[in-house]
Amino acid sequence: MGTYVPNTEADRKNMLKACGMERMEDLYAGIPEELKRKEPLRIPEGKSEMEVRRLMEGLARKNRVYGTVFRGAGAYRHYIPSIVGEVVGKEEFRTAYTPYQAEISQGVLQSIFEFQTDICELTGMAAANASVYDGATAAAEACGMCLEKKRRKILVSAAVDPKVLSVVRTYAFGRDAEVTVVPEREGVTDLEALKSLADGETACLLLQTPNYYGCFEDADAAAEAAHGAGAKLIMSCNPIALAIMKTPGETGADIAVGEGQPLGLPLSFGGPYLGFMAADEKMTRKLPGRIVGQTEDRKGERCFVLTMQAREQHIRREKAGSNICSNEALCALTAGVYLAAMGPEGLRKAALSCRAKAHYLKDRLEEAGLKAVYAQPFFHEFVTAAPDEQAAERILKALEARDILGGLPLGGGRMLWCATEMNTREEMDRAAETVREVLDA
Amino acid sequence: MKLIFEQSAAGRGTAYLPEIDVPQTAPDFKGRETPLRLPELSEIQVDRHYTALAKETRGVNGGFYPLGSCTMKYNPALLEDAAAQPGFRDVHPLQPDAAAQGCLEVMRKAEAYLAEITGMDAVTLQPAAGAHGEFTGLLLIKAYHRARGDGERTKILVPDSAHGTNPASAAMAGFEVVNIPSDGKGYVDLQALKAAVGPDTAGLMLTNPNTVGLFDPNIAEITKAVHEAGGLNYYDGANLNAIMGIVRPGDMGFDVVHVNLHKTFATPHGGGGPGSGPVGCKDFLRGFLPGIRIAEEDGMLRRKEAEARIGDVRSFGSNFLVAVKALTYMMILGREGIPETAAGAVLNANYLMHRVKDLYPMAFDETCMHEFVMTLEALKEETGVSALDLAKALIDHGIHPPTMYFPLIVHEALMVEPTETEPRETLDQAADTFRAVMEAARQHPEEAHLAPLTTRVSRPDEVKAARKPVIRYDFDHPMD
Amino acid sequence: MHFPKELKYTKTHEWIRFTEENKAYIGITDFAQDQLGDLVFVNLPEEGDALTAGESFADVESVKAVSDVNSPVTGTVLQVNEALQDAPEKMNEAPYEAWFVLAGDITDTEELMDAEAYEAYAASEG
């Protein structure tokens, strides 16, 4: 009971006999006795589906699902059309393995080819891979692509998401590369500092725009500074913002990366998410992980296969550029369905809506007594300052009492707010009103 | 089949979002210069397109899927329901601990169960896949030696039969890879290992059962040799399904492990991901673990960071929904179900092996664990029919091909892993099919090169795909 | 299989054609391309890179494998045959025209075989 092993006692007996064995223990005769576990595992007894369902429902109930969310900082609540869940729930997509057997995997392969095209379109780049784990590992892998024997220094803007910086540092620890943080000034990368830090040993600059504080960076100037030192430019972008902003391709970036979670993936307490990566023509072969290519079958029929595989770990082993094997294929499919459903106009509308609402929210919060910290153009996030840390805490608490998840506290009374198309005018007015009440009290 | 871009018609679409209810201000940033060529379709077209793609995709429920080393077991339906609950799905990763107690409890429970199953003292759920776990585990080893001022330990030993991710992960973690040969039975060559270890040894990476499906009986001696040289032992949990609840990596002398939730713990593969590759370690490495640690304080679960942590290996704490599914599965199996599952996998593999081994020469003809490796070298020499040909022929009989040409130490290899969730009848049927396919190949070898014949697409020209890569749709030069 | 008399060969299946003093074209042999199957890509060094006799300076990819290409000489890369990157099939179709690099400043040379000796050697390998 409690397992998904279908064979009955009688089946087992017959099967053992066919193998020339008597007891189940004989199967493990080759394992030295002294290594085997003598006692049962110290975990609870197995349970029925009904009992486990109730337990899992109980755990889910211990979490709070806010009616209103004004928090982003790398994970964004967007509207997900119903069609997305319907498609992604299909058993074939859900349970298939990596499409190594092309003849029975054309569905997955074509969906990845379409995803790669979507990412090229969003970023304006020449080539994209089939996904990596998340936006942070995409950035870290991109930095790895740029390392050369004589260029071991990775520049990262201080306005990059701190979680991404942490991951870039961890990967750099592995590759024995050096990470130097370019300071920020007034919410954006300090370009003067960048110019003095970029030199002949610099492999790349990692720039995020819109950055962690929501501000658009002057990517053209950053590109000039990086390229002027012979270094590569990696741009990390919000995929929804890409519907309206100047793309990495148009900016002359060498690599574009980002967190694909906004494209139809729920918040999910942080994962699974979707790292996307795209590169210009020259860096295509350095992209890590799987890539799907078009070809023909024996009859000349168009079809798709995993291609350029000799770059990858299963063939190149220790000489491979990356060890990635499993990726986030189902999340890439999710993004593909989301983009197909939304279309260019739908995505543009989502982007414009995010921007308009965030600007509205910022104005209301300012009227309510919070101060906007930066005066830069921004997308859908911005930073405010409360008089002190305690005031910020009181604000968040008061919002919480009204079923609102407020901005992310950054310390010192600063909060990072986010608005998306999901937030109505009424919600924003209510949040501002709550802030006013707290500050006036 | 048409690409989604080829079905697009300008102006078509579905209105999913309401009109913007606040004033819009003029753009104060640099705008997009080129048109965004996403497909423009009505919802029914989107639905039909993906329904058609799903029909050309083979999931586990579509038939026997004995893909060696991938553990394509049945993914119980409850797992999806558990993960789809709004109380998990709609929780922001940065919401306050007090508002995420259920998520933290899921993580803590999953970590504790995995620690017990692997014989480790602490587990992190942060790594997003097996290879990611390997990288993480190797960084723990690197950080450990560095913290002791033992920076000369630059080499990781990897058996020649290892998965490609092992040497690739070691290289990414900044180590030099030393290949250790296997002996005639696929076990680690003990003498070669003992000769290779030394003051420059950072560690050994090993999977046991190994990649040919055999349990290396010298494992205690192997891990001891590495320890005595001052190195650490890393356990690649790819093959844990065969032994969980029977023998634990921690009891075999391993210091760090990763497990693949998407193999052993029944979470689906998603056409290549998402997976999840939690890493476990012994107590002395706990402080280096990446991501967050969950601690109970005043009856409340809280997220903490370990002091000497190697940093983060991804944003946020885990592929959380995958962890929810794995925990659900472990709760159903429980302490008896886990070893029963392992034994069921081993029995199924041995049974199928016995049903076909007179026609299919085994690379190592002895009791296997959860999978076995056949070598079709003789068939290739005698008839010209390759392992690939035979694998493709199985497709025509509704069976997903076994893993081909792995491990590299076996020529013309086919690796079969039936998993425990297949009933005896399926194995009997599969054995009959394997036999029929072999007989057909011997009788009509010339036809074997043509398989599969029942799929819309026959064997693709992989050379063409790689020589002149076309990896995105070309809007300016539409294809036929 | 064809082994031109005017070339010299290595045990790791590269050919070398010496031109004027201290310069040489290097490629892979007919035997090598036949063993490797359809080649789909070549990773080439850059101009100015150092070459060391017996050590890898490039690699070639087939669909399912990658193989190192070793330099028969110690010297410097003077020129790289970039055309191979757009037409990897040339390595299969005309291996002795599909040179990888032109080497110069040669200071050391591996032990080389003439066509006859290499043919016998290749036969024993195949």
Describe the structure.
The complex is a heterotrimer of chains A (441), B (480) and C (126). Chain A folds into three domains: 9-61, no CATH class; 68-77 and 343-440, Aspartate Aminotransferase, domain 1 (Alpha-Beta Complex); 82-338, Aspartate Aminotransferase, domain 2 (3-Layer(aba) Sandwich). In chain A, 39% of the residues lie in helices and 15% in strands. Chain A has 14 helices and 17 strands. In chain A, strands 2-10-9-8-7-3-4 form a seven-stranded mixed beta sheet, with helices on both faces. Chain A has a four-stranded antiparallel beta sheet with strand order 13-14-17-16, with helices on one face. A two-stranded parallel sheet of chain A has the order 1-15. In chain A, helix 3 runs antiparallel to helix 12 (329-368), helix 6 (135-146) packs across helix 7 (162-175) and helix 12 (329-368) crosses helix 14 (425-440). The longest helix of chain A is centred in the C-terminal third of the chain and has 40 residues, at 329-368. Chain A is globular, with a radius of gyration of 25 Å. With 480 residues, chain B is α/β, with parallel strands linked by helices. Chain B contains 14 helices and twelve strands. Chain B has helices at residues 43-55, 77-83, 86-89, 101-118, 130-147, 165-172, 190-196, 219-228, 320-356, 377-383, 387-395, 424-443, 445-448, 462-467, and strands spanning 122-124, 155-159, 176-180, 201-206, 232-237, 256-259, 279-281, 292-297, 300-305, 372-375, 403-404, 413-416. Chain C is α+β, with helices and mostly antiparallel strands and 126 residues long. Chain C has a single domain (8-110), classed as RNA polymerase II/Efflux pump adaptor protein, barrel-sandwich hybrid domain (OB fold (Dihydrolipoamide Acetyltransferase, E2P)). In chain C, strand 1 (8-9) and strand 2 (14-18) form a beta hairpin. The longest helix of chain C is centred in the last third of the chain and has 11 residues, at 115-125. At the A-B interface, helix 1, helix 2, helix 3, helix 4 and helix 5 of A face helix 1, helix 2, helix 3, helix 4 and helix 5 of B.
